[in-house]
Amino acid sequence: MWTQIIGLVLGLAVIGGGLAVYATSL
Question: Which of 7, 9, 5 is nearest to 17 (CA)?
Answer without folding.
Answer: 9
